[in-house]
Amino acid sequence: MLLLQTCLSEGKGYHFPACHILCVSGFRILFDFPLDLSALTVFSPIPIEPLTKYHEEKCPESFESTQIKRRKIEKSLVADDLIHAEPYFKTIKNLQSWNISFIDIVLISSPMGMLGLPFLTRNKGFTAKIYVTDAAARLGQLMMEDLVAMHKELRLVYGPGQSGGPQWMKWNELEFLPVELKEVILGKDGTDFGGWMPLYSADDVKECLHNVRSLKYGEEVCYNGTLLIKGLSSGLEIGSCNWSITTPKGKIVYLSSSIFTSEICMNFDFLPLQGSDVFLYSDFTITNKGNIEDDIGSSSLVADDSSENDEIGVVVNSLANTAESTEETEKLSFLCSCALDSVKSGGSVLVAIGRIGIMIQLLEQIAVLLESSDLEVPIFVISSVAEELLAVSNIIPEWLSKQRQDRLYSGQPLFAHVELLKRKRVHLFPEIHSCSLLKMWQEPCVIFCPHWSLRIGPAVHFLQRWCGDPNSLLVMEEGVDPNLSLLPFNPMEMKVVQCSFLSGIASTKIKPLMKILQPTCVLFPEKMGKIIGNLNQSSSMIYYSENQTVLVPKPKSVSELNIAVELASLLQCANIGKEDLTVARLKGELSVERGQYHLLMQKEQALSSQKRPLLYFGRVDINLLEEALKKMGVIAAATPEAMDTSPRSENVHMLQVLEPVKALIEVTESETVVSTSDEFLAARISEAVRNILYVV
Amino acid sequence: MAIECLVLGAGQEVGKSCVVVTINGKRIMFDCGMHMGHLDHNRYPDFSLISKSGDFSNALSCIIITHFHLDHIGALPYFTEVCGYRGPIYMTYPTKALGPLMLEDYRKVMVDRRGEEEQFSSQHIADCMKKVTAVDLKQTIQVDKDLQIRAYYAGHVIGAAMFYAKVGDAAIVYTGDYNMTPDRHLGAAQIDRLPLDLVITESTYATTFRDSKYAKEREFLKAVHNCVAGGGKVLIPTFALGRAQELCMLLDDYWKRMNIKAPIYFSAGLTIQANMYYKMLINWTSQKVKEAYATHNAFDFKNVCNFDRSIINAPGPCVLFATPGMISGGFSLEVFKQWAPYEANLITLPGYCVAGTIGHKLMSAKTPTTIRLDEGTQVDVRCQIHQLSFSPHTDAKGIMDLIKFLSPKNVILVHGEKPKMAVLKERVQSELKIECFFPANNETVRLPSSHSIKALATDEFLKSSLNPNFKFLRPSIVENSSPGAGDMRTPPLQVFDDRIAEAVLLMQKNEYPKAVHQKELEKLLSEQSHSVTFSHCFPVVYNDSRNRTEDSASSNNTKMTSDLDERLLLHQLSALLSDKCNNLTIQACEGKVQVESFTASVCSRDNCPHRTTSTSSYETKVVYFCCNWSASDDEIAWKIILTMKDLSLCIS
């Protein structure tokens, strides 16, 4: 097995997972294909005023406009600097140097990891098998559909796109962009430009899902007989998973961002990842945080803590401790209390959180809190997929946490929102213009709506409405630059709470985890290698960085083979003069099934009498042969070289057989040629030679 | 290496399913059911046969429960809480959710209604279920290092699963109850084709063949519709789970389509509670129901309302679902007494009723009739009776289809009636040529299991056996030369691609055997390979019928055959050989005739070293053929040489 790994993108946390290509046993596997939706912030949200101002500015190549542009570069960023055009979407640009028709398998580890998939599947040459867990496929579908629906609104504003690409993508326009925007559009090294694409259509999404093979929890699927692929919960989000790939030559594990204990989804199922030959560590969480310094301190501390003598069980318990989830719970209650304060002071609350699990939890908790505080404040969830999203969350107990599953066993709905909807505490609307929403509208209210980028979707409208109200509250996620994302809504009077949530393995837990999993070879991000240092002695480390291909040495040089007993019973063992070593010829039908080779009895094999050519090893000593022949009653004598007529090398020995019939035996280092006209003599000579050589 | 199958329940009967299978030393209990027909110790499987000492936790590797019916799960709380089994237990999510409901309902019936001493308490049920590991379909679970299990969809009831279990190379499937045709709310059983040593299958309908379900459904709907249209009341006695939901979906849908306003009631809280579970478990229903979930959860019955006791004698039509299904007591019996005497009313009966129940009596009765309930009371039955004839079990065709699809080495039948099982066994053995057994309770069947030898294989060997191995055969000339139909049948060239994996196995003490390609052997053994070949150069007489007077005049020396002659002779040789040895594949090419490793070519060397017989002059023309072959084709070679010596070649 030749293993080649290329990290196409390290990603940016929860919403933009990392992306890799791995070549295993001749198959190319792509891990995740997300969209960098944080890049949407370079675009202006839907304009409130008519577009005239913008168009005036557009008169091309006038001296004045160049002046305006120059000014843009110099002064600090203002809302007008944002690109007033139909947004494009930023994909993984590094995939463009690959021929996507050569990708054999796509493994998606989270709903976010599939947002870019329609860009791949709409290509004619793209034939890869796509594996996604059933829960992730459903959530991913809803996220994509919602994206398309939200984008439609902007399409209506800007009208059909110009031919030859949008104006803002022209080099002379890009040149004058403020440096903050330039960095997002072109990337730090100026190469990201190629990754920008106009959004896919609803049909593209439909076709993409048509090509997806969804997997049940822990379902093993076999690709081409050779690879046994299995997705196991990673705990990050409902349906998100890590992958274990078993090949005839060993096991490969792909570790995406994982959370040990989760309130909502099935915990990180790490024990089945034990004992892999190659372990691709792709949780970049600690590099996405700012406080790397802190992490170094704490991780070295833990390294001392967990001495080598620790029982595995102790380490497992320490990993699964609930400190992290308690912290998460506290964050949520803090957000709830902020929301309550706002509502009490007459302000409204806008929750623009894209993490499904967090969103559902907040919805539940805020509703409960408002109810217990006797506040008649309506809660609206506004999204084109709100109804489906909440419905789906209630029918996938297989992917939820133990606490949620226990609700199933006790006959309660998995999530409280089912009851809240029934009791009309929470209302769902597909869009902001829904008639029933207008009828029911009242302020203050609590609104859950996309999109966390604050550029598309209903959130924009509510921000535009409330940004001047100091009593209102915006709840947003960390990960986007607040200065840039709030820019269009300046001056911002609203209160803003930006909250970071746990989105991967903490640096303190990496070493203990690797100690349990005991991989033979770890592919580790180079960036993090500096922080973590050597993981443990038993694993060899290979460091990788973005857009660099790493060659991984073969984990094993041989494959496992199962030989059918019926076949083994036919084996005829031969001794080849070596102690402890016996050799036998083996013949059968080779099949590869579920990642294992099997040698089976052929149907006609038992009957077939066809002989296989024997294999001879060793050297024929001419004297021994003469002796052996004599015992059989064959009289032979070495012939002098002179008798030989043809020019030969010096190591040729000739043996002339005189009785019973004339024959000639010619012996060299690697060959014996018997010339005789007599069948029986030939058989006897053959036997004599065989006795001298090792025959297999 | 063997499989041992101990049938503790459902052997030649229906009830208390429990089979303990030992695969290569791992012991798995499939189902742990109770028998509804027995009230004594016979209601439970005889667990003492598993372990005399009662140490069940060590005697079993795990327990697997296929679905929530009491004859499959009923004894589980007793076994874990009273007998003390502490090992792992596996069942699907719906079974884990709905199983306790069934157990609790049963416990209540036993204790509260019949006043029996309870076998297990509510607490027992709760404690027992805590030990259960829920599994998803197709989820592959490694119970321990060697034992792997996996659930497959079985239809039958929600969450019903067939289980695959594998230990080493031996693998089996235990079907539980299953349905091979989809119904209103559940899909058909679905399983992968796997190499199996044994399939243990239910055989409830071992000899029954059923036709389309849709006709039966139409009949049922028509009967209900007619009754309601005539102002009558419909009583549908059912079990709380499964059938109730199926029929209700049917009616709810029909009500909507036909715009019927008559109310549908559920009598027991259990059924309503069950609907809650069904809503969350909608992923376990049929594809059609699943697909519609976003807009409408099929278990959100729009026309169903809660029942109030006062409604029993309220005027106007209605439909009522009431438990228990066989009208053996409880609410369905109470309503039956009230509604049965009126001709306008309708009572539906389930497909199967245990003897002794009212349901069973009604099945054979002709209305109007009188049914005795007990000593004092009897009921005039004037209402219509409709027997439901759809069943969540597969019919005989389904069983045969499944066995044929899986093609295991052996089949064991359980969960059926003895005479019918005997018939099915015969069919399996004669039609499918698969060994089949139907042991009685407490009997053991021992079977050999597949076993393979673990080895390692080098890339060279694997590559060589995966590469195509083409052989091109030209049908012999003789066949071709025969005119007419023969030409049509044989193509000019036949291509074979028999991929045979040939390896040399190296076996060393304390190491896995290693399969290598023969090319690698020289290096691995550090021995030089040696080839042994045989050669023989001999004359064959031929006749030159050409009128070349100058030649014949010069000499009858044969040494100088011309190039053209050589080719002609070889061509003729191959033709004649094909004719005489038609079981051999003779190839003629590049100045030689070849059969396997044997080659013959015209030898023009006077002093050929392989010419061991002395050269004497011949009367007629002779041509020397120099032949060589490797030792393995000895037999063929001598046969050909003998044939060649007898040939009379001729150049014309």
Automatic annotation (TrEMBL), chain A:
Gene3D superfamilies in UniProt: 3.40.50.10890, Ribonuclease Z/Hydroxyacylglutathione hydrolase-like (3.60.15.10)
Residues spanning the signal sequence: none
Metal-binding in keyword set: no
Residues of the Beta-Casp domain: 359-487
Cell compartments where the protein resides: Cytoplasm; Nucleus
GO cellular component, one term: cytoplasm
Entry superkingdom: Eukaryota
Keywords: Cytoplasm, Nucleus
GO biological process: snRNA 3'-end processing
Similarity-based family: Belongs to the metallo-beta-lactamase superfamily. RNA-metabolizing metallo-beta-lactamase-like family. INTS9 subfamily.
PANTHER family for this protein: INTEGRATOR COMPLEX SUBUNIT 9
Full protein name: Beta-Casp domain-containing protein
Biological source species: Lithospermum erythrorhizon
UniProtKB/TrEMBL annotation, chain B:
Alphabetical UniProt keywords: Hydrolase, Nucleus
Keyword Nucleus: yes
GO biological process terms, semicolon-separated: snRNA processing
One Pfam family it belongs to: RMMBL
Annotated GO MF terms: hydrolase activity; RNA endonuclease activity
Classification via PANTHER family: CLEAVAGE AND POLYADENYLATION SPECIFICITY FACTOR FAMILY MEMBER (PTHR11203), INTEGRATOR COMPLEX SUBUNIT 11 (PTHR11203:SF37)
Record protein name field: RNA processing factor
Source organism: Lithospermum erythrorhizon
Classification lineage: Eukaryota, Viridiplantae, Streptophyta, Embryophyta, Tracheophyta
